[in-house]
Amino acid sequence: MAQCAALILAGGSGSRLGSDIPKQYLSLNGVSILRRTVDTFLAHPDIDAVQVVIGAKDRELYNVAIGDADVRPSVTGGASRQESGRIGLEALTDDAPDYVLIHDAARPFIDAATIDRVLSALVTSSAVLPSVPVTDTLKRSTGDPPIVSENVDRRDLWRAQTPQGFRYIDILDAHRTCASQGLTDDASIAEHAGLSVALVRGSEDNFKITTVDDLERAQRMTEYSSDEFRIGTGFDVHALVDGDHVILCGVRIDHSHGLEGHSDADVAMHAVTDALLGAIAEGDIGTHFPPSDDQWCGAASSVFLEHAGRLITERGGRIGNIDVTIICEAPKISPHREAMTLSLAGILGIAPDRVSVKATTTEKLGFTGRGQGIAAQASAIVRLG
Q1: Does residue 83 fall inside a structural domain?
Q2: Are residue 293 and residue 304 in the same domain, yes or no?
Q3: 171, CA 20 to 30 Å: which among 43, 240, 324, 341?
Q4: Which domain holds residue 28?
Q5: Structural domain ending residue among the three candidates 202, 225, 248
């Protein structure tokens, strides 16, 4: 795919919303509208750069809203949307991308599939407009108060959306040619310059936040989608050696052998800990508690599990559930299952019905079947948001 830049127009005042600050800087469940918009383009594999155009008085709002997003330095727009678009395009002249997608900052629900359709159409078209067909019955009115004067044929009528895609040099030339024409979108500028504009399917969710009703709709959408669910898995093995007990899930069980390990060798709790760390991409126990560090010699594995739980809490996360399976021929796990469940739940501060402890054998096969060791595997769901 040839080089493509995304140009995000964020210079509007949002006066129709009646907000004290421009709508693009308002928060949707903790993330600004602008950041949500920008992040979608940054995540798309065919977008090479993101350029944002902002209002002259919005620098501080922009800095807070954009945070650490990997975008080009912003530029200040002009008095109209048309002028802001031209300024943004001029800012890309050093890079001279093959294509540019021009998008309204107040459309935070743009999806990758719509971007894909626009980019695909640009292979054969110089300008592309994502749009959705008009499906409601249309009426024309007269008078005050208004009354219906006629029906409007909705066939072949479309509602324009963004990102509108262009071959960069074509839309830059069109903007330069059509300066001060008062045109309200870039597709209109392309048409005015004589370019043919192809239509591709947009998305009903890709609406522009303009009114209070739009903002409430957006809030509802992000309430349902703001939580992120992560799944982690863990697996651990410890050898059986001379001893008189094992510790599993924090519970001491008398046994003919013990488990060998740098800490208390609680193989089941180690698997659970690794599952939780994996769910938040924080490595494994060895990353946080290296076996080469003598301070962890003989340590209770509850220290490791508490640490994993604390990391999740610091990320604003919650543990959905834990499922651990202990693999051994002996000792019998079922008499201790309830105590193990309560132990894990207590350490992590979650309800016992979110913890499952199971056991199985390998039918005398392998090292666990020969009684040479005990293994455990675990999975965990963590909810971030």
Answers
A1: yes
A2: yes
A3: 43
A4: 4-135+154-225
A5: 225
Give pLDDT tens digits along the chain (385 positions).
Answer: 469 999 999 998 777 777 789 999 999 988 999 999 999 999 999 999 999 999 999 999 999 999 999 999 999 999 899 999 999 999 999 989 999 999 999 999 999 999 999 999 999 999 999 999 999 999 999 998 899 999 999 888 999 999 999 999 999 999 999 876 778 789 999 999 999 999 999 999 999 999 999 999 999 888 765 568 899 999 999 999 999 999 999 999 999 999 999 899 999 999 999 999 999 999 999 999 998 888 888 899 999 999 999 999 988 888 999 999 999 999 999 999 999 999 999 999 888 999 999 999 999 999 999 999 999 999 999 988 6
Whole-angstrom Cα distance, residue 11 to residue 31? 18
Give this prediction's pTM: 0.62
Q: Where are the beta strands (DSSP E) in the chain?
A: 4-10, 27-28, 31-32, 49-54, 75-76, 99-104, 127-133, 138-142, 147-152, 158-160, 164-167, 197-201, 228-242, 245-248, 251-254, 257-259, 317-327, 355-360, 373-384
Beta bridge partners of 240: 259
- Look at residue 350 and tell me if it is in a domain: yes
Number of domains comprising the chain? 2
Same domain, 187 and 288: no
Q: Is residue 144 part of a domain?
A: no
